[in-house]
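User: Fold this; tokens only.

Assistant: Input:
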Amino acid sequence: MTNTMSGMSRTAAAAATLPAPHPAGRPVAPSRSGLGGIGLVLGGTLSVQFGSAVAALLFPRVGPFGTVALRVTIAAVLLLAVCRPRLRGHSRGDWAVAGAFGVALGGMNILFYQAIDRIPLGPAVTLEVLGPLVLSVLTARRAVSLVWAALALAGVFLLGRDGFERLDLTGAGFALAAGALWAAYIVLNSRSGARFPRLDGLVVAMAVAALMSLPLGIAAAGTALLDPAVLALGLAVALLSSGLPYALEVLALRRLPAATFAVLMSLAPAVGALAGFLVLGQTLSASQCAAVALVMAASAGAVRTGRA
């Protein structure tokens, strides 16, 4: 669900982390900062996809609008309490970036939840990840980056092929729109992280997203949002799908170029398929397993041969 509960993040051609050759002609090992950034991205992807699978359990009780309202609002409250952002000393430009970041974040999650309410999780994540992949192609600086992006795209389509025949067109449209906002999320996340210290920009953006989604959730689910069991699941979803992964992505984008980040997002369908299998009992066909291998190979190649 990326964002399936989507969210992801999703949302930037692959640039990577190999440094320039050593003056003596011997290559230097990849920087710890770059490797750490890759680890942050992978951790965030795992968290958000499993959170999206858990979020699907809330749909019968509060619907997609109620689910996204719980996820984003609880995450915003937790981030405000933990981070305590400094709201003074920022320019209008800073606030504009943070506000746009919040709109992209809230819209991405709302649209994605509408998508997974209509189509299976695997195809939904597959369609959504096209946003970051397109962004990676548009920002490519080396021909080999296009090769890796094309390989990832082939894997994405192969992964979702089995479910595309039964897709609801409205649900597919929501997933594609969520992917476009995921690409915007990646760019604005990077810019916000450069303007705000710590996670302050993310906290502001999450508050904006909560103000967008909470009225929709209240209108759709009403007092069901206050049920203790619903709140407990909402807390789990907020931590797995918003608080933890978004914080990791902010930190990752301070270590990695947005283009590298975007290509790594192509791992989302593979992780989403794994989460669907473990949490929701969805199985993988042989072609889907091959697609997972393609996407992972493309991401690894993009990170290794790209340019930071």
